[in-house]
Amino acid sequence: MSTSRRDFLRNSGLAVMAGGAVLSTEQWLAGADLENDFKKKFQSGSVPTPAAPSASGSEDSASVIKDKRLEVPTLVTIFLRGGADALNAIVPYADDHYYKVRPRIAIPVRAKRGEPVIKLSKGIGMSDIFGLNPGMSAFAKLMEEGKATAFMNIGSPNGSRSHFSAQDNMERGTTGDARVSSGWLNRYLMATRKQTDAPLRGLCAMNLLPRSLRGEYPVLAGQNRTENMELFEDLYAPSNLINQTARDSANMEKGTRLDDLPTGEMKRRQLTSDWARDVISDSGTNAVVRIKALEAAMAQPSTGNYPNGGLGNQLRTIAKVIKANVGLEVAQADYGGWDHHADLGESDGKHARMLKHVSDSIAAFLEDLGTRSEKVMVMVMSEFGRTVHENGSNGADHGRGGMMLVAGGPIKAGKFYGTYKGVADMVGDYQPVYTDFRAVYAEAVFKMFGYDPFNPQALVKMFPEYKPKPTDYLDYLNVMKAVKA
Predict the structure, then answer these.
(1) What is the Cα–Cα distance from 139 to 147, expressed in whole angstroms?
(2) Are 92 and 129 in contact (CB under 8 A)?
(3) What local confidence, expressed as pLDDT, does residue 367 receive?
(4) pLDDT tens digit string along 21-68?
(5) Across 222-326, where does the E strand assignment appear?
(6) Residue 439 located in a structural domain
(7) 271 and 172 assigned to the same domain
(8) In sequence order, what are the residues at sequence separation of 6 or more whose Cβ sits closer than 8 angstroms to the Cβ of residue 119?
């Protein structure tokens, strides 16, 4: 193990929960090369059973950030809802077949109107095959600077082309296992929770909490405000949860919110009023703390040149929370409207304009964060790609293999990632899925947070039905380094 890696592990303060999968500093230092161990799990196609956790893996040492001056890594996911077209974003301009199957909507090398495909420098791997949609000039600049990259032919082995099912599976981190009800980001938060958690480990900047952040671990959603916080705090004060009329039964029976129902349901389930009072009080108090932390974070200045629109506004909010150093680890933003069955367009079409908004928003977000972006990664995904052939409405229909984009400090940039065998490589009329989307997730939580998502001893299983393949391992991230606040 190199000195730099050893120093990183010593300074990171990574530790394990009792029975959990977050490695202690000692366990990291004892390993010959944990990155290779992680890679071997993909190569073997199975998840080996690890040795029992060391004595250092007690809850007393379960602080991911022992030094409060350290900034936590942050993973920000962006979901492009509707099935974003990959071939008109990551453009295979060197493939003649691309122009044969998309005579009206392909992004041209020389545009008759609008702008041609953006060609990247020769130093970027596969740039002789792929370019970027002209709307993605800001993302192209990030790629040239070594701060961003893209994956091709990535998706779910499930094969569903239903928006609802495909989005739901991707956000739960499954291929359709109905027993997994929580989101993959929430499972990460739950698996690494501790009594001294920061108030805002998870956040979404939308009013509706996305599936990826739903689960047992409490996560805030929407634009919460504290104008009436005194009333809210009073509502959840334990002393005020007694003798409040909360309901009227069909027989006009009065009762408090903590009284049992006439049927004795609470007694049957062994739920006491004291237990209920504690749950309500704790939940309310925790919500108050989180909302106050969010409102304090929103006072942070914004320096990024964000475009107008929903995604730009969401990323501005997330950037403020990150800069406030309140412990934000995972966040999600959404951008809908990618179901382009018609009028997808070429260089000057709707799809290009939407890609520009995504590209400009990400660039503004990283600019806003400044040096703080060294420990932040943006991950962009969509539920599936589109058909290879254009349809009769100048659009493309639901496909399979799609794309993912990543940007930020820990990226191993300099090339496009994924297996690509040409536009003519089709399953039906779809680009195939060569890389399971969960491989990108797994590498992110391992290399950003030191969390082993494949540890069978973990109380919370990150990807219970996923068996990694050798081709899934992308090695697109550097192990996160500590950054002083």
Answers:
(1) 9
(2) yes
(3) 97
(4) 444 333 333 333 556 777 777 766 554 333 332 222 223 223 333 334
(5) 245-248, 254-256
(6) yes
(7) no
(8) 93, 127, 131
Report the Cα 441 to chain-centroid distance in Å: 8
The candidate with the shortest Cα–Cα distance to 99, out of 91, 284, 401, 357, is 91
Q: How far apart are CA 335 and CA 333, in angstroms?
A: 7
Smallest CA-to-CA distance from 19 within 59, 46, 73, 74 is with 59
3-state secondary structure of 433: coil
Alpha-carbon distance of 219 to 202, in angstroms, equals 5
Considering the domain architecture, whether residues 211 and 273 belong to the same structural domain is answered as no
Q: Return the amino acid letter for 476.
A: Y
Domain membership of residue 207 as a residue range: 74-222+301-444
Strand partners, 262: none
Q: Which of 319, 290, 311 is nearest to 408 (CA)?
A: 319
Nearest to 170 by CA among 433, 437, 432, 417: 437
Q: What's the pTM value of the predicted model, to 2 decimals?
A: 0.77
Q: How many CB atoms lie within 10 A of CB 267?
A: 11
455 with 21: CB under 8 angstroms?
Answer: yes
For the chain, the domain total comes to 2
Q: Give the C-alpha separation, 294 to 223, whole Å.
A: 9
End-to-end CA, the chain: 27
Q: How far, CA to CA in Å, does 378 sit from each of 14, 163, 405?
A: 22, 23, 8
Output the CA–CA distances (angstroms, integers) from residue 23 to 12, 72, 195, in the order listed: 11, 16, 18
Q: pLDDT of 294-320, one tens digit each?
A: 666 666 677 889 999 889 999 998 998
Euclidean distance between CA atoms 125 and 130, whole angstroms: 9
Average pLDDT over residues 430-444: 94
Q: Are 245 and 254 in contact (CB under 8 A)?
A: yes
- Residues 85, 212 within the same domain: yes
Measure the CA–CA gap between 331 and 203, rounded to whole angstroms. 5
- Domain assignment of residue 450, yes or no: no
- Strand 330-336 with 254-256, pairing: unpaired
Give the H/E segment covering residue 441. helix 437-449
